[in-house]
Amino acid sequence: xxxxxxxxxxxxxxxxxxxxxLGLAACLLAAGVSSARPAYRAPTAVVPNGxxxxxxxxxxxxxxxxxxxxxRDLHFNMQITCQxxxxxxxxxxxxxxxxxxxxxxxxxxNGKLVLNWQERAEGRYGQVSVEFKFGVRDVFNASxxxxxxxxxxxxxxxxxxxxxxxxxxxxxxxxxxx
Length: 178
Description:
Blueprint: H1 9-34, E1 50-55, E2 61-67, E3 70-84, E4 91-97, E5 105-106, E6 112-121, E7 124-133, E8 139-146, E9 159-168, E10 170-171
Antiparallel strand pairs: 1-2, 1-10, 2-3, 3-4, 3-5, 3-9, 6-7, 7-8, 8-9
């Protein structure tokens, strides 16, 4: 009589299944432990109180004040390109804005504040959009669109304008004394 026994296929299948179940349980446990860590949060931009601004080479400027992470007293001047309906070429003009800008908006934790409004400046009624970016490089981006005004005499020339500006500002800007 032989005492050699052959392993059964059922036992082998059970052993393989047990290893797979234990491996899956270990993976799920490891995933549960790793998800207990807090998710990555971008650092909060540091925005000290003070006056910020810059005077650009083309006569463009921006000046504003920050108090308790709120932007106030915005004033800017930027170049826009205007096209009259009766002229073949366009002309460069300036748009000085900020008097009607929303005041006291809080700068979000990521350091990026966007403001949109409509304003009349230099006789033009424009749609203004500005963006403040505080961080490694402090940047002011602005765009102005002045659509053709409706009304007036039918043969009167209409003018439309638009422009964009991007200026790197810094804290401690002082306006010149007249």
